[in-house]
C-alpha cells in the first residue's frame, strides 16, 4: 500500500511500507528522539549497523508493520520524515494484538505526518497481519502524542506511576489501546 498525502504546510509526501534502504533514516530519527531525552524511555542511541539491520530483518521475518513517511525531494537518509511501527507481542496467545511506536522528525512535527502514518499502520495491521487491537504506551506529559492518539480513537486503559527514571526525574506511563474494527467503523 502506498499513498500520497498533503501536509498542513501544503507539501505532498509519500507514505508506504519500509524498505531496506530506509534503515539509516529510521535509526537517525530514533536516535534524534533519544537525544531529546523527554519522549522515550531509552538512554542510549543505537549506532551498531548489525543492530539496525537485525531490526529490519526481524520485521520482515515476523511480517510486522512499519510505515514510513518519505519526502519526495530530500536525499536519503534525511528523506525519512517519520515512522510508525506495529510490532508483535512476545506472547503466543496475543498474536491478535500489535504494539505501536511512532517517531516524526522534529522539524516536521505538527504537520499531520503522525496522523497519516498511524492511519495506514492501523489499516495494514489488520489487512496484512490480522491484528484486532493496537496497544501503546506513552509518558503522561507527552501532550501532543496523547492528543493525537485520542483523536484517532485510542482510549486510556491504565497508568503506571513513576514507571521510568531518567535524567534525575520520574515519568509516569499512560497505557492506551484501540480496537481496529471500532476505528474502521468510525473511519470507513
Ligand atoms: C508524537 C508525534 C509522533 C506526533 O506526530 P506529528 O506528525 O507531530 O502529529 P500530527 O501533526 O499528525 O498531530 C499532532 C497533533 O498534536 C497537536 N499538538 C501539538 N502540540 C500539542 C500540545 N502541547 N498539546 C496538545 N496537542 C498538541 C497538534 O495540534 C496536532 O493536533 P491536530 O491535528 O488536532 O491539530 C511526533 O510529534 C513525535 O515524533 N514526537 C516525539 C516522539 C514521540 O513523542 N513519540 C511518541 C512516543 S509515545
Task: Summarize the structure in short.
The chain is of the alpha+beta class and 188 residues long. It has helices at residues 23-36, 49-62, 113-129, 143-151, 180-186; strands at residues 2-6, 12-17, 65-70, 80-88, 97-104, 133-139, 155-166, 169-179. The protein has a domain at 2-132: 3-Layer(aba) Sandwich (Aminopeptidase).
Attribute tags:
188 residues; alpha+beta; Aminopeptidase; 8-stranded mixed β-sheet; binds coenzyme A
Task: Give a topology summary.
Blueprint: E1 2-6, E2 12-17, H1 23-36, H2 49-62, E3 65-70, E4 80-88, E5 97-104, H3 113-129, E6 133-139, H4 143-151, E7 155-166, E8 169-179, H5 180-186
Parallel strand pairs: 5-6
Antiparallel strand pairs: 1-2, 2-3, 3-4, 4-5, 6-8, 7-8
The structure holds coenzyme A (COA).
Coenzyme A binds next to strand 5, helix 3 and helix 4.
